[in-house]
Structure to design on (916 residues):
């Protein structure tokens, strides 16, 4: 073949006709595979978000946010108020438990015992814990809490906190590691104690990164369903109490309504999905903004 | 002590380096003693990094530690404010007395020590806070009764930085230049009013102009503080210090590692014009190191 | 003891002595942080202990048949979980089969082939994919994907090749809610993880290796095959295994689209089945007594399996890390 085939694609070499055609073809196929994979990944994303938007937006009336859930599932009407409040409340309580515990645990790992046997064990177990399926967390909390104390928002919050804890520990430890040791030295040299150094120098310096990591953990928890199914029950009306009585959440509502054959219920599921995705996206984007601002400040 | 004389080698006349003309020619012998170091060995685990240091630091003087890299100057310096405690496995043998008090007595709280003996580091390390908060950091911890604004202004004036930053005290310290940051760190240190300031190669990360400003600053600070400075720049030691300690390393025959030791300690002008030890002479005349 | 003139602090030794609130605060803080760290161990231990304890009645009454039998009839007290274990494994493997080529492709594209302007948007897209809650994927799967695939994809394929040998063993059935659909949904969900981990691995390949390949006159694909993939093999395997672990633990999306047909152990991919996690979430509400214990027992099996997969994945990645740093 007399191809003086000169490709100028970035990354490709200039290939002359002395290069075997099959090699060129294989290279071209590989490029198609790589670029095609990106398209393949984008398609489901677009489809899912598209459907959620289109099918859900019709549900978002003012009633949606304020009214209680309808008594008869298969009929339209009512709103998702209790579920929205439930999601926010349960996630907030879970964060209130997981964040201090996680940050303190990370402080222990990085500032105190990290290199010893206990520290390495804790770090390893935290990694293992990130892989525990969320339904196992739900079963666990059911066993140790719900049986004794009944369905409540707190049970769900406990399960979510168990999910969030190892994530927060790992990301916080990474952020602490990024704080230059010279700052700690400067603080000690001024006659500052270790605990005050951590609180007044290290944590403020790592604050942005920690916040970003925490927000991502919260976003993940807000979307969880399995840990809540056995622990919070199902309520139709608004329940602001954390410890008393069943409540509901957006994720559980979606799960329940998706399994019914009724149009109205399914429509409600789409609306709840849109609401939930909006909450999660806002949190994720905020987390990225905070992270970007931190990165910019460090490079200033 | 007999005055040494310069020796003439066979191949060249050894003359006193020209820069010692700037050094003070006399140092009071009876200046009060701040630190009394006797038989100091510093170990990292089982490795003896420095051996057998004996010297006395006098008040309101600038004392320089010089010597080739790896001879333990910084290690010894960090013993004075117990910063070596932060390194795992670091320990000392021997004694360092601060106004007669053994610094390493088990009852001594290193945190209190560091409030009296401050340190400035090689690379400027301001906190990522405002200039004001950097300076106020130390006094806030000690719970000073004074007005913080006054404390901050006084420290910045003493560090010759006030005029440059007085209009932007609330801005981040990270926006200052390298030389300004180092003067900020000095101001931060003196805001807690220590008695002694340790400086670990404070100018090695700075340009010559910034270096000159800090050297001038040291001379001004001398009247209120006692200063110990580690420097790998001989000329700097000769310019600013009253006394100089010269360290070097020796090879340990068994383990092939190097241990640092103090070779000679004398008023600066003597170290540079009439050193007693041959190793000192070789170093200050640039024959090695 | 020298009382030195001019020295402001010479005489007050006492102020140097260590005692008092400062030091105690340090020790207290250390203890608090330690306790926080120990919580991780405590919780994991509690999970293992409490779930096993709850599940014990079921384990005891079924013995080994809990994992070897596929007969699951709560009314008769028979709890054989084999079909569910099979369903979990099958749907996860399908997910890997679909996700790994795509993830690797994206990872390679992002690192090797993409113009730099596209690189960041790709990462954003992946982050968005990862952020979508699994229940939303399940919702879309059961209302949109499954009803579409059944008549429009599975049925035609089944009609065409369902009777053939070998291929027909797999491409059989016509249920929209099936192992295959579960595999597809899972693939979408684990792609972000596998991609981002693989990307990290690929990014650590040293320039020298790539340049050596190019210098030999390799095309870009050959360079990838010769330099990048061998180097990153361990880390990529680890990433894949972490994706596997995630797929096996996924509950809600699978529960919605797998069809919940108990007892099916079949190679027909387009038929409905069940997975351990899906069974738990579907049957727990109305279960009691031994049935409930059996469901918790499923959770225990799931817990153990995912931990084994996770730990193996991390040790492979760790070995790869050490190898990469050692060379």
């Amino acid at each position: 073949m007399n191809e003086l085939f000169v490709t100028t694609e970035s990354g490709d070499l200039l290939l002359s006709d002395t290069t075997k055609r099959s090699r060129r073809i294989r290279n071209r196929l590989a490029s198609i595979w790589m670029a095609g994979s990106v398209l393949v990944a984008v398609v489901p994303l677009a489809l899912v978000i598209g459907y959620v938007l289109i099918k859900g937006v019709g549900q978002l009336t003012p009633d949606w946010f304020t009214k209680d859930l309808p008594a008869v599932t298969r009929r339209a009407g009512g709103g998702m108020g209790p579920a929205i409040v439930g999601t926010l409340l349960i996630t907030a309580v879970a964060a209130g438990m997981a964040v201090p515990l996680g940050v303190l645990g990370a402080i222990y790992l990085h500032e105190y015992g990290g290199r010893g046997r206990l520290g390495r064990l804790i770090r390893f177990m935290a990694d293992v814990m990130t892989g525990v399926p969320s339904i196992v967390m739900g079963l666990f909390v059911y066993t140790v809490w719900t049986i004794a104390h009944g369905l409540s928002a707190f049970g769900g919050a406990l399960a979510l906190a168990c999910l969030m804890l190892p994530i927060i520990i790992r990301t916080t430890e990474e952020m602490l590691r990024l704080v230059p040791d010279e700052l700690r030295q400067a603080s000690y040299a001024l006659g500052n104690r270790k605990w005050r150094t951590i609180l007044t120098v290290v944590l403020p310096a790592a604050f942005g990164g920690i916040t970003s990591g925490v927000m991502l953990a919260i976003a993940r928890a807000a979307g969880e369903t399995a840990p809540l199914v056995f622990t919070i029950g199902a309520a139709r009306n608004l329940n602001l109490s954390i410890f008393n009585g069943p409540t509901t959440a957006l994720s559980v509502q979606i799960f329940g309504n998706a399994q019914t054959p009724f149009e109205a219920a399914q429509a409600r599921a789409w609306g709840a999905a849109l609401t939930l995705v909006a909450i999660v996206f806002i949190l994720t984007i905020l987390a990225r903004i905070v992270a970007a601002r931190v990165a910019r400040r460090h490079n200033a | 002590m007999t005055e040494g004389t310069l020796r003439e080698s066979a191949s060249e006349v050894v003359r006193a380096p020209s820069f010692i003309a700037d050094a003070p020619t006399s140092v009071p012998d009876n200046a009060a003693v701040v630190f009394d170091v006797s038989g100091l060995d510093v170990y990292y685990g089982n490795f003896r990094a420095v051996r057998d240091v004996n010297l006395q630091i006098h008040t309101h003087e600038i004392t320089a530690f010089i010597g080739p890299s790896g001879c333990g100057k910084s290690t010894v310096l960090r013993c004075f404010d117990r910063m070596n405690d932060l390194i795992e496995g670091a320990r000392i043998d021997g004694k360092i007395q601060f106004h007669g008090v053994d610094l390493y007595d088990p009852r001594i709280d290193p945190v209190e020590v560091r409030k009296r003996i401050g340190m400035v580091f090689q690379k400027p390390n301001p906190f990522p806070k405002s200039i004001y908060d950097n300076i106020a950091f130390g006094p806030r911890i000690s719970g000073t009764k004074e007005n913080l604004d006054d404390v901050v202004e006084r420290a910045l004036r003493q560090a010759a930085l006030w005029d440059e930053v007085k209009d932007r005290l609330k801005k981040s310290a990270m926006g200052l230049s390298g030389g300004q940051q180092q003067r900020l760190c000095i101001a931060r240190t003196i805001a807690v009013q220590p008695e002694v300031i340790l400086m670990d190669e404070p100018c090695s990360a700075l340009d010559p102009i910034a270096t000159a400003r800090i050297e001038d600053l040291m001379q001004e600070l001398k009247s209120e503080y006692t200063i110990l400075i580690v420097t790998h720049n001989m000329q700097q030691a000769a310019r600013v210090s009253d006394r100089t300690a010269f360290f070097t390393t020796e090879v340990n025959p068994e383990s092939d590692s190097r241990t640092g030791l103090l070779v000679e300690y004398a008023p600066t002008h003597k170290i540079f014009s009439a050193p007693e030890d041959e190793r000192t002479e070789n170093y200050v005349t640039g024959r090695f190191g | 003891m020298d009382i030195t003139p001019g020295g402001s602090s010479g005489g007050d030794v006492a102020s140097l002595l260590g005692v008092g609130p400062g030091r105690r605060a340090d020790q207290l803080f250390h203890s608090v942080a330690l306790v926080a760290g120990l919580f991780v161990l405590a919780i994991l231990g509690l999970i293992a202990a409490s779930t096993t304890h709850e599940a014990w009645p079921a384990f005891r009454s079924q013995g080994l048949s809990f994992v070897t039998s596929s007969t699951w009839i709560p009314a008769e007290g028979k709890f054989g979980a084999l079909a569910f274990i099979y369903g979990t494994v099958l749907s996860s493997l399908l997910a890997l089969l679909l996700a790994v080529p795509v993830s690797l492709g994206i990872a390679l594209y992002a690192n090797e082939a993409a113009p730099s302007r596209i690189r960041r948007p790709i990462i954003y897209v992946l982050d968005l994919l990862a952020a979508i809650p699994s229940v939303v994927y399940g919702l879309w799967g059961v209302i949109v994907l499954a009803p579409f695939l059944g008549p429009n994809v599975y049925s035609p394929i089944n009609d065409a090749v369902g009777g053939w040998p070998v291929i027909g063993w797999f491409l059989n059935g016509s249920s929209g809610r099936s192992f295959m659909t579960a595999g597809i949904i899972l693939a979408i969900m684990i792609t972000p993880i596998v991609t981002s981990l693989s990307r990290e691995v690929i990014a650590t390949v040293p320039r020298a290796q790539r340049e050596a390949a190019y210098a030999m006159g390799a095309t870009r694909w050959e360079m990838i095959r010769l330099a990048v993939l061998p180097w990153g093999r361990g880390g990529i395997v680890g990433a894949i295994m972490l994706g596997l672990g995630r797929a096996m633990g996924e509950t809600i999306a699978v529960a919605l689209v797998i069809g919940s047909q108990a007892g099916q152990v079949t190679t027909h991919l387009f038929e409905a089945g069940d997975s351990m996690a899906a069974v738990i979430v579907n049957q727990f509400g109305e279960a009691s007594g031994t049935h409930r214990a059996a469901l918790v027992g499923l959770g225990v099996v799931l817990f153990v399996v995912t931990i084994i997969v996770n730990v193996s994945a991390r040790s492979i990645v760790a070995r790869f890390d050490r190898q990469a740093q050692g060379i």
The longest strand of chain B covers residues 33-44. Chain B has one domain: 31-284. Chain B has a mean pLDDT of 86.
